[in-house]
Amino acid sequence: MAFMYVINAKIRNWWEDVTFIVWGPSAKLLSQDVQLQDHIKKMLELGVEVVACRACADGYKVSEKLEGLGIEVKYMGEPLTELLKEDWKVITI
To answer: Organism's domain of life (predicted)?
Structure first.
């Protein structure tokens, strides 16, 4: 659902800025699943900002793999807090 929403939100201009954040065990799954990686590639082609939590990715030893997919890997605690303070809309799954 998250992949479909993000792609459609960008294609249909539902939001000016769309950011997809990869957390926890999803980082490991994404590093292994080619079908999910194809969705990420589409997001990136559309101009979606795709980032992964470095603490999570490092914990699963997949940071380099995610970076190789074009995903920015960085610590997300402070950036997420700033987005929430700016009243960004957040969907979690």
So the answer is: Bacteria
Q: Which amino acid is at 36?
A: L
Tokens of 18: 């769309």
Domain 17-85 top-level CATH class: alpha beta
Q: pTM value?
A: 0.91
Residue 44 backbone zone (phi > 0: left; psi -120 to 50: alpha; other: beta) = alpha
Q: Picking from 13-17, 62-66, 67-71, which range would have the lowest pLDDT averaged per residue? A: 13-17
Are the C-beta atoms of 50 and 44 separated by less than 8 Å? Answer: yes
Strands, sheet with 49-53, edge to edge from the N-terminal-most edge strand? 19-22, 49-53, 72-74
| Spans of all domains in the chain | 17-85
Q: How far apart are CA 80 and CA 70, in angstroms?
A: 20
